[in-house]
Amino acid sequence: MSPSNIVVHSLNNDDQTRCVDVFRRPDGSFGFEEYRRDAEDARGWFPTGGYAGLTFPTEFAALNDASCRIAWFSLPL
């Protein structure tokens, strides 16, 4: 993810090993990426989804698409 993007939501699964970040780009569009981390690897989070290039007009549109593409993820209540 570009350092100029701003994360507006970071949502983890129950065991804190997977995460979806929804971000806003400088042009006002939104995107998301899926990340994972392994307890035995102290290097942190790694992108796994390949979704960061998708572009959406709103946060909700990005969240909705993430919930359709990522099996474990559902929209927050």
What this model shows, in words?
With 77 residues, the chain is an alpha+beta fold. It is built from 1 helix and 4 strands. The protein has one helix at residues 59-69, and strands spanning 6-12, 18-24, 30-36, 46-47. It has a 4-stranded antiparallel β-sheet with strand order 1-2-3-4. The longest helix is centred in the last third of the chain and has 11 residues, at 59-69. The protein is globular, with a radius of gyration of 12 Å. The mean pLDDT is 91.
What's the alpha carbon Rg, rounded to whole Å?
Answer: 12 Å
Helical coverage, percent range: 10-25%
Structural class, from secondary structure content? Answer: alpha+beta
Question: Can you list the strand order of the major beta sheet?
Answer: 1-2-3-4
Low-confidence stretches: none
What's the structural domain tally? 1
Shape, please?
Answer: globular
What is the CA-CA span between the terminal residues?
A: 26 Å
List how many beta strands DSSP finds. Answer: 4
Name the helix and strand elements from N-terminus to C-terminus, one letter apiece. Answer: EEEEH
Question: What's this, in brief?
Answer:
By secondary structure, the chain is of the alpha+beta class. Helix content is about 15%, strand content about 30%. The N and C termini lie far apart (about 25 Å).
What is the element layout, followed by pairings?
Elements (H helix, E strand, L loop, with lengths): L5 E7 L5 E7 L5 E7 L9 E2 L11 H11 L8
Descriptors for this entry?
alpha+beta, four-stranded antiparallel β-sheet
